[in-house]
Amino acid sequence: MTYTYDDQNIFAKILRGEIPNTTVLDTDHSLAFRDLYPQAPNHVLVIPKGAYVSYDHFAAEATDAEIVDYTRAIGEVCRLEEVTLTAGDGFRLISNAGRDGVQEVPHLHVHILGGRDLGRMLAKA
Ligand code: DGP
After folding, report:
1. Which atom of ligand 1 is nearest to the CA of 39?
2. Which of 14, 82, 86, 92 matches a 20 to 30 Å C-alpha distance to 45?
């Protein structure tokens, strides 16, 4: 089973410079930018520059360099946003995938949320 990637998704357009974004961090293999519809005082999306639809796709097919860069970029954004446990009050990482995960944009992204008490992880079904 192979993964299908739609290169017309919004984040692919952001990576190609076709749509503007508010960049927080730009590295060799990753881009972090502010969510257009923030749900907390800190709400940053971190995406790999490669064409990966979900975290499982990325984990299976990304190079070691991409994985290291992406992991470090997520940590660096937490530091820049001052939500780390050393400089702030914490954060939540969310990566939605597919229909059950209610993923709107089919390019892997991690949401970094912080700046307020985020409540319990999931609402009751
Ligand atoms: P998800 O449901 O995990 O796929 O969330 C996608 C997020 O992307 C959602 O929080 C809103 C955000 N978003 C959608 N379109 C744009 C856009 O054009 N620019 C930015 N910065 N964020 C967007």
Report:
1. 10
2. 86
